[in-house]
Amino acid sequence: MAIIVERLTEMVLHCAADQPTRNITWLVPGLIPFGAITIIDGDPGQGKSFLTLELAAAVSQGLTLSAKGRVKDPDRKGPLASMILNAEDDMNATLKPRLDGLGANGKYIHFGGEGFNLAGEPSSCFFPEHNAILARAIHVTKAKLVVIDPIMQFLSPDVRTASDQSVRQALNGLKLLARKYEAAIVLVRHLNKQAGPKVLYRGGGSIGIIGLARSGIYIGPDPEDRDTKIMAQVKNNLGPLQTPWTFRMEQRAAGRVIRWGGPTDVPLSRVLDAPAEPTPSERCLKFLNAKLGAGGMEPINALMAEAKKQGLSYGTLMRVKRELNVECTKVGKRTFWSIRKKSKGR
């Protein structure tokens, strides 16, 4: 029985004895719950957004995710709809091609958040002002997965992102929408610049964001292999913390895909302490030392071709060449690079 104690503020009391128990159900078992908010944290370039597309592609096929890849969910009867609000990637140039490459069933995936209205004017979605619009969109699309990426881009300019109270008030509506529609709302967030072992404090903005989430996931590089990413659950209010998973993003003929590597026992502290991504200059320096170190000599055409394959720009390569004291030597019709030896006594 519900008792209205104050009609003006619509405060309603519910007797515990009258309330049914709600069983927790999962979009991804143990990791992403229905009816609640999940936050995915990580630095740029670690695959956060791509992971949400992999998730949308999986559920569009009636599947879920596991440490070994997409699997059938015995409790799921068929495909589920998703809604993706992405403020960083272009819908037509990036999101759609990536979903196609992942084998997504596009009939079950909807884009929103930014675009042009019927008058041809730029239109954006902000929370909490547009909670009612999001509610209608979820109702119309029957979305069971809602991705908001990145969440900071979709918060109203009036929200003080460093204030626990302001952030909780802004996101409370999303929490209620997740519960009402039994949807999994996934918020994507970049890390702040703060260093330290407490991963719960590493996400941008107030700690109230992770506080409101029922599940928190961190994505970072494997300290032994930066191309391998580790997906670790750092918070779970609805069950035990799950074992971290690994994955790699690989290029295939049809597009980029995720190759799941299974569970890992790499401690989260080592993932957090992994060194920063090398700069273009550092990558060029490593490349030239590997090719020309210990008195090596390489033809310039072969070097340039290999550098291009590795994504190293010509300008950066030439700058590092000067810093490394690389000299050119002509042998017949071919030009070679080598590192000039230092004179004795210098």
Question: How would you explain this protein's 3D organization?
Answer:
The structure is a single chain. The protein is elongated, with a radius of gyration of 25 Å. The protein is built from 9 helices and 20 strands. The chain is an alpha/beta fold and 346 residues long. The longest helix has 18 residues, at 164-181. It has 2 domains: 25-272, P-loop containing nucleotide triphosphate hydrolases (Rossmann fold, 3-Layer(aba) Sandwich); 280-339, Arc Repressor Mutant, subunit A (Orthogonal Bundle).
Key terms:
single chain; 346 residues; alpha/beta; Rossmann fold; Arc Repressor Mutant, subunit A; 2 domains; 9-stranded mixed β-sheet; 3-stranded antiparallel β-sheet; 9 helices
Describe the SSE topology.
Layout: E1 2-6, E2 11-14, E3 26-28, E4 32-33, E5 36-42, H1 48-60, E6 63-66, E7 69-72, E8 81-86, H2 91-101, E9 109-112, E10 114-116, E11 122-124, H3 131-141, E12 143-149, H4 164-181, E13 184-190, H5 208-212, E14 215-222, E15 225-236, E16 245-252, E17 255-263, H6 268-272, H7 280-292, E18 297-299, H8 300-309, H9 314-323, E19 326-331, E20 334-339
Rg measurement, Å: 25 Å
Number of strands: 20
Instruction: Going across the biggest sheet, name each strand in turn.
Output: 9-8-12-13-5-14-15-16-17
Q: What order do the helices and strands follow?
A: EEEEEHEEEHEEEHEHEHEEEEHHEHHEE
Shape designation: elongated
CATH topology of the largest domain: Rossmann fold
* Poorly predicted parts: none
Per CATH, the superfamily of the largest domain is P-loop containing nucleotide triphosphate hydrolases
Tell me the major beta sheet.
9 strands, mixed
CATH class of the largest domain: Alpha Beta
Q: How many H/I helical runs?
A: 9
Strand content: 25-35%
What is the total number of structural domains? 2
In the CATH hierarchy, the architecture of the largest domain is 3-Layer(aba) Sandwich
The percent of residues in helical segments reads 25-40%
Could you tell me the mean pLDDT?
Answer: 86
